[in-house]
Amino acid sequence: MNAFEPNLPIAMGRIGPDGRLVHAEARLADLNARAGGKVGAPLAVPPIASIARLAQRLGVAISRAVVAADGEEDVDLWVRAEPDAEGVRLEVSGWRPRAPWQAPEGDASRENDFLQAEADWVWETDAAMRITHLAAEAGTAPGFDPAAMLGQPLTLLFALEADAEGALPILTAAAEQTRFDGQIAELRGTGQRVRISASPRIDASGRFAGFSGAAVLADPGEETATDVQAPADPEFTSAFGQRLEKVLRTPLTRIIANADSISAKLDGPLRDDYAEYATDISNAGRHLLSLVEDLADLSAIERDDFTVEIEPIDLADIARRAAGLLAVRASEADVRIEKPGADEAMPVAGEFRRVLQIMVNLIGNAVRYSPPGGLVWVQIQREGALGCVIVADQGKGIAVEDQAKIFEKFGRVDPGEPGGSGLGLYIARRLARAMGGDILVDSAPNEGARFVLTLPYRAD
Fold first, then answer.
1. Taking the CB of residue 260, how many other CB atoms lie within 10 A of it?
2. Pairwise CA distance, residues 393 & 335, whole Å
3. C-beta separation of 337 from 374 below 8 A
4. Contact 118/100 with Cβ under 8 angstroms?
């Protein structure tokens, strides 16, 4: 068990331009050594190394709270990374043993979760109001690059507007280090007006370290930002689903990216069992993200005003693209996908994005339920006024009495079997029918399964 003494001085360190640890005071050096690193090698504590790299890339000082693994324990740290001509200067403070997790009650992290639930933009700044993180949840104007704003003043992103009393809420909040809401601004270069809200970030020494905020696109025709429909209203349900997707997608994406980085040992040496844990975390994150995406699609397709864009598409081309997207998964499962030839075409009417989504679902299911060494056939053919793509596998098949169940919402033949959410085929069939087509299944136990997607044939 490691001993921590939060009242000890800040531990200083320095990382060279090449990312290697040049010097570290005892406490930081010991933490790095326990993680498998040493002076002259890349910093082996991933969260500290990530902040150092970001500070060096942006050319600005960055301060953030992090959690670092120390043996079998976790420790809360506050890290300040300041780039200079010789690399990056580190200040690491805090050093508090991390208590077992419990649901937060009114703290800043919970407040930020609610703040970002409705966000079209999520952003963070340092104490000098320079952007250190920016994620766009909504579409942006052509040519606008959020990544290019990192390290720039917040006012270069948002043109601030005074309120009815001539004040700028964000400046008042910065002076008083408090939260602010309802700052109106224009997203420069796009003409889009937004409402900005943010909470202050305070470092381990009690100093103001910047803002963690969100921005929501302003609709001139909307009533008030706080108007909420009754829960029974389907409009409320859809909006809630969209907000739920936004608030979950960003943290899940970060979890997956960080876990992949740890698993690949990009930040330095790491024990093999820790790398395997990171792989498990990444896989679990991808499963949850897939479920979030299914729930978002479910919310969309069950709206009364749901529509699809009907356009001329090539069903054979989309089938080849879907097979290509699943090539790595098939290889890992020792399954071969036989896709339509490059010279084959099947002109139909539908929405490209939605048909690709359906094909990825059908071929992905075929790969999942195929035995090692199995083959998945993807073939096209015309049936009168319909263009068809057939996905056949060599899996265990589906009994006739279960074939209707697999198209039901959350329908699973064997709930205990590894698989998806039970929404994929329900969503796929709803999408196919919205485009004037359908999905059919032909299968029997121990004889594999044959799924057929049909869409209206389009004569050239």
1. 16
2. 10
3. no
4. no
Residue 451, classed as helix, strand or coil, is strand
Rounded CA gap, 191 and 74, in Å?
46
**C-beta separation of 410 from 294 below 8 A:** no
Q: Residue 88: in which H helix or E strand, if any?
A: strand 87-97
CA distance 59 to 82: 8
- List Cβ neighbours of 27 (8 Å cut-off, separation of 6 or more): 8, 11, 92, 95
Contact criterion met (CB below 8 Å) for 118 and 216: yes
Please count the residues of the chain: 460
Q: What is the DSSP string of 192-249?
A: EEEEEEEEEEE-TTS-EEEEEEEEEE--TT---TT----TTSHHHHHHHHHHHHHHHH
pTM (2 d.p.) = 0.47
pLDDT digits (tens, 9 = 90+) for 134-186: 876 544 444 556 767 778 888 888 888 877 777 788 887 877 778 888 788 88
Round to whole Å and give the CA distance between 66 and 429: 45
Of 155, 230, 214, nearest in space to 186 by CA: 155
Strand partners, 348: 313, 457
Task: Report the DSSP beta bridge partners of residue 83.
Answer: 88
Distance in angstroms (rounded) separating the CA atoms of residues 271 and 253: 24
What tens digit of pLDDT does each residue of 363-407 get?
A: 988 998 899 999 999 999 999 999 999 999 998 888 888 888 888
